[in-house]
Design goal:
Layout (H helix, E strand, L loop, with lengths): L6 H12 L19 H13 L7 H5 L4 H9 L4
Helix pairs in contact: 1-4
């Protein structure tokens, strides 16, 4: 996956859709348990594709809905 997003951007985008402070999201916490549903995940897929992660697909995020996994997938860095 092309590395076009920063860890801070990934965290901020997730926090925006969860309506919380980015610092409140633990890297290994299940984002679905925090309220991130499939519609919001698709919103992120669209947003991040537009930002350059053109190969990103819904299952890439849905199969392991943790900030650390998403950050590594999108940026190559840990959350």
């Amino acid at each position: 996956m092309q590395q076009t997003l920063s860890p801070e951007r990934v965290r901020a985008d997730v926090a925006e859709l969860l309506d919380c402070d980015p610092a409140e999201i633990a890297p290994d916490e299940n984002l679905v348990d925090l309220g991130l549903d499939s519609v919001r995940i698709m919103t992120l897929v669209g947003r991040w594709r537009a930002a350059g992660a053109v190969a990103l697909e819904f299952p890439d995020l849905a199969e392991q809905p943790e900030l650390a996994h998403w950050t590594a997938l999108l940026t190559g860095d840990a959350a």
